[in-house]
Design a protein that fits this description.
Helices cover 13% and strands 16% of the residues. The chain has a two-stranded antiparallel ribbon with strand order 1-2. The model is unreliable at 89-95 (pLDDT under 50). The chain has 1 helix and 4 strands. The chain is of the alpha+beta class. It starts with 18 loop residues before the first helix and ends with a strand.
Length: 99
């Protein structure tokens, strides 16, 4: 479902809120090796992060607005939205598989 917090023209793009886009964005997050460009726009060295967090584990409702970007719909759910999607990402020797 489309998040009710979308207020830009992207809210009218079905592909933006599709299961395929959700799967691809999560896969890309898992695949990120945490590297960043060596220099920012001012030529300064950029240090990469030492850890990152995926926001969010569950769908949420903020001030009455529904957001659907969680891995599970609600706290009581026991299965990820991507189960059965064969998502595989590697980061060095670490791998995450959702089946």
């Amino acid at each position: 479902p489309t998040a009710t917090t979308l207020s830009t023209p992207v809210k009218d793009c079905d592909a933006f809120s599709s299961p395929e886009s959700f799967k691809k964005s999560y896969f890309n997050f898992l695949s990120w090796d945490l590297s960043l460009p060596m220099l920012d726009e001012d030529g300064e060295t950029v240090s990469p992060p030492d850890h990152v967090f995926y926001f969010t584990m569950r769908d949420s409702v903020n001030f009455g607005d529904k957001e659907y970007f969680g891995l599970v719909p609600q706290c009581s759910d026991t299965k990820c939205k991507l189960q059965g999607s064969s998502v595989l990402a590697t980061n060095g020797a670490k791998a995450v598989v959702v089946v």
